[in-house]
Specification:
By secondary structure, the chain is an alpha/beta fold. The chain is built from six helices and nine strands; from the N terminus they run E-H-E-E-E-H-E-H-E-H-E-H-E-E-H. Helices cover 28% and strands 19% of the residues. The strands form three sheets. Strands 2-1-6-5-7 form a five-stranded parallel β-sheet, sandwiched between helices. The longest helix has 19 residues.
Length: 229
């Protein structure tokens, strides 16, 4: 049984064929854990050219995505369980907590923003959440949709093989992940910390927590809350 269906409304559906056929996400699709569809917005236009954009009223640079095809696409795809997302620089910042929240839904519809954005009536009447993946500008929302899809799908039960894999990693507990080592014990004078070789599980857990806290303080102090001093 499919745990999650994701419909991505885009002007460039072919972009998604490669990334979602490879590695962990590709295996999840093959195993029937998730269904991912790239939906061509031009299929919802009614002119020979397949027009999806037009000039903004009031003037200004660039073009806006038209209201009619976006409404038709969402209304065609949406169910009572759907969450409709717009990728946009104006959106809330995507993070791990948000990815976890998305896994609670049965159906996600992601609209890939393009041009100078969308007609405001789309944002006002169709969108449940507006999301940005960072403070920079992309040529379109396709890459943002890929990033969100990857982050969400890997959290679904069974996708990673061991569900514990998504628990003990960066951001899962609000911290960056601790340093990790594998064989050999020593390489070019660099040694694996003794505590990791000790077999003392409590000592290892304490060391890992301390390392996570210190690393987070150094690189992402914005993640440190009042519980971690």
């Amino acid at each position: 049984m499919i745990d999650l269906r994701i419909d991505i409304i885009t002007l460039f559906p072919d972009i998604f064929f490669g990334p979602f056929k490879e590695s962990i996400i590709g295996r999840a699709v093959k195993q029937g854990l998730v269904e991912i569809n790239a939906v061509n917005l031009r299929n919802y236009t009614h002119d020979e050219r397949g027009t999806v954009d037009d000039k903004p009223y009031g003037g200004g640079p660039g073009m806006l995505m038209k209201v009619e095809p976006l409404f038709e696409a969402v209304e065609d795809l949406r169910t009572e369980q759907s969450l409709v997302i717009l990728t946009s620089p104006q959106g809330e910042r995507f993070n791990q907590k948000m990815a976890v929240e998305m896994t609670a839904h049965d159906h996600l519809i992601i609209i890939c923003g393009h041009y100078e954005g969308v007609d405001e009536r789309v944002r006002a009447a169709l969108i449940d959440r507006e999301i940005s993946i960072g403070d920079y500008v992309l040529t379109s929302g396709n890459l943002a949709a890929m990033v969100m899809t990857d982050a969400i799908v890997r959290l679904l039960p069974g996708v990673l093989g061991s569900d514990e894999s998504s628990v003990d990693e960066s951001f899962a507990n609000g911290l960056l992940e601790y340093p990790q080592y594998t064989r050999p014990v020593e390489f070019r004078g660099m040694k694996v910390p003794d505590v990791l070789l000790s077999g003392n599980h409590a000592g290892i857990a304490a060391w890992r927590l301390k390392q996570s806290q210190e690393l987070t303080r150094q690189r992402r102090p914005d993640l440190i809350d009042n519980k971690i001093k």
